[in-house]
Each structure stands twice: as C-alpha cells, then as structure tokens.
C-alpha cells in the first residue's frame, strides 16, 4: 500500500529504490545496484580484472 499523501516515487527513493517513472512507477531498482553498475562502467576493462576491481571498490564502501 502506498500513502496517497506523497508521491510513490518519493517513497521508493526513501526506501533506497530508484523508481522507473516519476508518476505511477511500476518498477524500481536498488540504488546500491545502480552505484555498483556505475562503478563497473568507470573501471570496466575487457577482462576479469575490471570486474574484480569494481567488486573490491564497491565492497570497501
């Protein structure tokens, strides 16, 4: 159930989830997963080293 006094998108953000739309979101993605993905694309290399470096950076946060 969603409180009608505040937009669903704002409630999702407070719960650590990024809404798929500003009005009536039907999907949400965990903010930690988005942070991990962002780090992966910054560190990305075409081998396993990029993946392991990203994982190490993310887990040390």
TrEMBL record:
Chaperone among keywords: no
Statement: the UniProt record of this protein carries the keyword Transit peptide: no
Alphabetical UniProt keywords: Signal
Any matching Pfam family: CxC1
Signal peptide coordinates: 1-28
Superkingdom to which the source organism belongs: Eukaryota
InterPro entries for the chain: CxC1 (IPR041320)
CxC1-like cysteine cluster associated with KDZ transposases domain: residues covered: 2-59
Name of protein: CxC1-like cysteine cluster associated with KDZ transposases domain-containing protein
Organism, scientific name: Hydnum rufescens UP504
């Amino acid at each position: 159930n969603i409180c009608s006094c505040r937009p669903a998108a704002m409630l999702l953000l407070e719960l650590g989830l990024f809404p798929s739309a500003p009005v009536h979101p039907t999907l949400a993605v965990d903010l930690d997963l988005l942070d991990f993905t962002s780090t992966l694309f910054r560190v990305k290399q075409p081998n396993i080293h990029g993946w392991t470096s990203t994982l190490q950076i993310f887990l040390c946060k």
